[in-house]
Amino acid sequence: MKAIWAGENAKTQDFYGTVVDQYGRPVTDAEVIGNLAWIQGFDVPEKTKILKAKSDTDGQFQFTDIQGWELGVMPSKPGYELAPNTSARKLPPDGKTSPSGRALFTMWKLKGAEPMVHKEIAAALACDGSPTTLDLLTGRRVASGGDFTVSMIRNPLNIDRSGSFDWSVTFTVNGGGLMEVSDLYPNEAPAEGYHPSITKNTRTGPPYFTGNAFDKSYYIKSRGGQVYGRMKVHISADYQPPPVRLEIEVFANPNASRNLEYDRFKQAPNP
Q1: Quick check: is 102 in a domain?
Q2: Whether residue 45 has pLDDT greater than 80
Q3: pLDDT reported for residue 207
Q4: Per the count of CB atoms within 10 A, which of 44, 195, 224, 265 is most buried?
Q5: Is 90 in contact with 104 (CB distance < 8 Å)?
Q6: With bands split at pLDDT 50, 70 and 90, how would you rate the model's confidence at 31?
Q7: Do 138 and 36 fall into the same domain?
Q8: Are residues 164 and 101 both part of a single domain?
């Protein structure tokens, strides 16, 4: 085992990267931290060393002439946001970096947060198609009007949780629309591409009981463009007896602005 560990610790870990913003422009003077690790043995924390570099005028940086078991790389710069984990990093197709094939790190250049509404909403959702309508700025359920309507149909209505069932959910935004989030940084709502209503059909059941839960993120445009936002929707579809549980976390800009950068210290006044 010691020979295997020694071989792992002797691997070349030279790394070449480029840092750009959301527009593909180089990010200069980003501080890049490299965490170089070596295997020490069973039940022994690995040995680590911190390396530092800065991106140049082309956004490029590198760590060279280093050996070890593993290298973690993380750029940062004031005024920029980096997506968590490694989702902001794109490696070359073969997974190996070089001076001509660099890892690409995409950071979001912050424009400045505006006052926004942040709500965490929990509500009961009927399974017979009866609508649940919410005011997203207050987080309250309303009988009419509102911003966001959810309706669910489950077949059969009353389920055996060990068996299969079909269910569908329909989301409707009144006075606007919604679209699924696919961006690395959901910090700016799109200007176009919204759908007034979206329906998702699901089949759930054995062998792995997939489809029991719904988790999606959407951009929203409401009140004729007065409100833009983003929200995470979770539905646990296998509650028995009905209703099921609907959970929504929403960040909404009520100022007709598509800026969705959020600062918890900049809260919009309660309507």
Answers
A1: yes
A2: no
A3: 60
A4: 195
A5: yes
A6: very high
A7: no
A8: no
Nearest partner of 135 among 116, 149, 153, judged by Cα: 149
In a domain, 267, yes or no: no
Asked whether the beta carbons of 47 and 40 are under 8 A apart, the reply is: yes
pLDDT tens figures, 102-158: 999 999 999 999 999 999 999 999 999 999 999 999 999 999 889 999 999 999 999
| Model pLDDT for residues 146-203, shown as the tens digit of each residue | 999 999 999 999 998 878 899 999 999 999 999 999 999 999 999 999 999 999 999 8
Q: Which pLDDT does position 271 carry in this prediction?
A: 73
Specify whether 76 is located in the same domain as 184. Answer: no
Number of domains forming the structure of the chain: 2
268 in any annotated domain: no
Is 18 inside a domain boundary?
yes
> Domain check: are 128 and 84 in the same one?
no
Q: Which domain holds residue 232?
A: 117-253
Same structural domain, 104 and 129: no
Residue range 225-240: mean pLDDT, rounded: 95
The CATH number given to whatever domain includes residue 75 is 2.60.40.1120
